[in-house]
Specification:
Elements lengths: L10 E5 L2 E5 L6 E4 H11 L14 H4 E8 L6 E6 L6 E5 L4 E4 L3 H15 L2 H17 L4 H22 L1 H9 L4
Antiparallel strand pairs: 1-2, 2-3, 3-7, 4-5, 5-6, 6-7
Helix pairs in contact: 4-5, 5-6
């Protein structure tokens, strides 16, 4: 496959345990949507549960057809906004692949970390309920849902401790179970 930006040959490599096709010249990455959550989680495990769906509401996020071609199938990539951010990435509707130029993954991680930092206890409780419902409705993806629920529970714990430091002091004095 050729780089959609500079035309160099892409090389397959593991990045954070995830197969990506990387351009050695410009640092761009090609990753399939099914691997994208794991790629983000490899960089920051606390953003794993935040998984904006780029595909089901593509019209909501699409800017337009780009000039770059998909390295896998040769179709035009489409420029989309990543979730509610100003980050513009390229996707292939046909291959369900994501083209990231150098630095875009870092921007996405920073954006998702910002969401995590601003969640309230109520927001986390709602998300825990959503993930718990996902356990029932997505039995084929149960391990992913369990991981997401585990992360949310840890984030909820952190948020409660930071919001109510007295609870942390009281809990630290309790005997272990």
């Amino acid at each position: 496959m050729k780089c959609a930006k500079c035309g160099e040959n892409l090389t397959r490599r593991l990045q954070g345990g995830v197969n990506v096709d990387a351009c050695p010249a410009c640092g761009s990455l090609w990753v399939l949507d099914k691997n994208f959550a794991e790629l983000r989680a490899a960089r920051d495990r606390f953003v794993r549960w935040l998984n904006p769906d780029l595909w089901s509401e593509i019209e909501k996020h699409e800017i337009g057809e780009g000039t770059r071609l998909c390295p896998a199938c040769g179709e035009h990539l489409h420029e989309v906004r990543y979730a509610e951010s100003d980050i513009v990435i390229d996707i292939c509707r046909r291959c369900r692949g994501i083209w990231l130029q150098r630095g875009e993954l870092d921007k996405i991680i920073a954006y998702l970390e910002g969401i995590v930092d601003h969640q309230t206890v109520t927001d986390y409780l709602k998300s825990v309920g959503h993930e718990a419902a996902g356990l029932l409705s997505h039995r084929d993806k149960i391990m992913g849902e369990v991981k997401n629920l585990e992360i949310l529970m840890k984030l909820l714990e952190y948020r409660i401790i930071s919001r109510f430091p007295a609870l942390s002091r009281i809990a630290s004095k309790l005997p272990p179970v």
